[in-house]
């Protein structure tokens, strides 16, 4: 048996915390001397301390921990809880890494002071008319992967055989909110003679003039692409066509899983004061 001071050193739990655990009934001493009031703990109770620490790291309150200890949770159940916590922390780390990337991109934008680098060269070109199968919804940029998952789930095998070209996103500003867009995700098709599954649309993108910008999805410039396009459009005396959606085209890079070339296309026309 160990005095409370000795048990504190062994368990690395402060004396005050051990006394508090005793009051809550979470970890009572194995023995209390009736004449002196001294608390004594056994070596086996170090395992109980370990469980309490694990439950605290999992985010449980002390009241919840007291209940869990009474239920005598098995080691396998604890392992399962820890795996869930591990997954939760990894997701949080991914979110924070994404935030860090955006911060670095913003720093780079400030350092560039609005200049368009050579890698960010905007070109004006004519795109041809093309038919597309799309799924329409509203949302933000973060919703695009989910919309493609929905699209793929709705597509039947016959329609899938007509697909051609890379993933394409069409977007328009949504007047009711500054945060969401009218989005359509889909692919170009080889034929327009299709009977489509429910909720999918066949639409035709017209031939039009666009300002286009091509960059790698893992490039530091991906966050600033639209700013560079807007700067070029304004400097060169064009305006964005409000009646046509913008386009984003994703071309996977061979041998580089998860990375693709992204081309943003903004329909433009000459301003009236230039005509």
Characterise this structure.
The chain has eight helices and twelve strands. By secondary structure, the protein is α+β, with helices and mostly antiparallel strands. The protein has three domains: 2-73, Multidrug-efflux Transporter Regulator, Chain: A, Domain 2 (Orthogonal Bundle), CATH 1.10.1660.10; 76-113; 118-274, Multidrug-efflux Transporter 1 Regulator Bmrr, Chain A (Alpha-Beta Barrel). The protein starts with a strand and ends in a 5-residue tail after the last strand.
Tell me the strand percentage band: 25-35%
By CATH reckoning, the class of the largest domain would read: Alpha Beta
Tell me the number of structural domains: 3
Strand tally, please? Answer: 12
Largest sheet: 9 strands, antiparallel
Task: Name the CATH architecture of the largest domain.
Answer: Alpha-Beta Barrel
Described by its quaternary structure, the protein is: single chain
Distance between the termini: 95 Å
The 3D shape can be described as: elongated
Fraction of residues in helices?
A: 25-40%
For the residues shown, what is the average pLDDT? 83
Question: Summary?
Answer:
The protein has helices spanning 4-11, 15-24, 45-57, 62-71, 75-112, 144-154, 157-160, 225-235, and strands at 2-3, 31-32, 39-41, 123-127, 130-139, 163-173, 181-189, 201-205, 208-216, 238-240, 246-252, 260-270.
Chain-wise SSE layout:
Elements: E1 2-3, H1 4-11, H2 15-24, E2 31-32, E3 39-41, H3 45-57, H4 62-71, H5 75-112, E4 123-127, E5 130-139, H6 144-154, H7 157-160, E6 163-173, E7 181-189, E8 201-205, E9 208-216, H8 225-235, E10 238-240, E11 246-252, E12 260-270
Antiparallel strand pairs: 1-3, 2-3, 4-9, 5-7, 5-8, 6-7, 6-11, 9-12, 10-12, 11-12
């Amino acid at each position: 048996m160990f005095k409370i001071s000795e048990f504190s050193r062994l368990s690395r739990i402060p004396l005050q915390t051990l006394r508090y655990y005793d009051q809550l009934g979470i970890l009572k001493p194995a023995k209390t001397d009736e004449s002196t009031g001294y608390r004594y703990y056994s070596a086996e109770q170090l395992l109980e301390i370990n469980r309490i620490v694990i439950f605290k790291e999992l985010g449980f309150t002390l009241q919840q921990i007291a209940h869990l200890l009474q239920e005598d949770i098995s080691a396998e159940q604890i392992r399962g809880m820890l795996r869930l916590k591990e997954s939760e922390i990894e997701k949080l780390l991914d979110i924070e890494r994404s935030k860090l990337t955006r911060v670095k991109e913003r720093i780079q934008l400030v350092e560039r002071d609005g200049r368009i680098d050579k890698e960010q060269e905007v070109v004006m070109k004519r795109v041809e008319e093309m038919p597309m199968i799309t799924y329409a919804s509203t949302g933000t940029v973060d919703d695009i992967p989910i919309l493609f998952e929905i699209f793929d789930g709705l597509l039947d095998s016959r329609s899938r055989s007509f697909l051609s070209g890379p993933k394409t996103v069409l977007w328009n500003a949504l007047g009711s909110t500054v945060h969401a867009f009218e989005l359509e995700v889909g692919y170009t098709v080889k034929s327009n003679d299709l009977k489509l599954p429910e909720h999918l649309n066949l639409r035709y993108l017209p031939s039009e003039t666009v300002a286009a910008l091509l960059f790698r999805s893992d490039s530091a410039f991906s966050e600033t692409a639209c700013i560079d396009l807007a700067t070029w459009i304004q400097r060169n005396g064009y305006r964005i066509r409000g009646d046509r959606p913008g386009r984003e085209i994703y071309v996977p890079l061979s041998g580089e899983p998860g990375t693709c070339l992204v081309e943003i296309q903004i329909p433009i026309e000459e301003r009236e004061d230039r005509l």
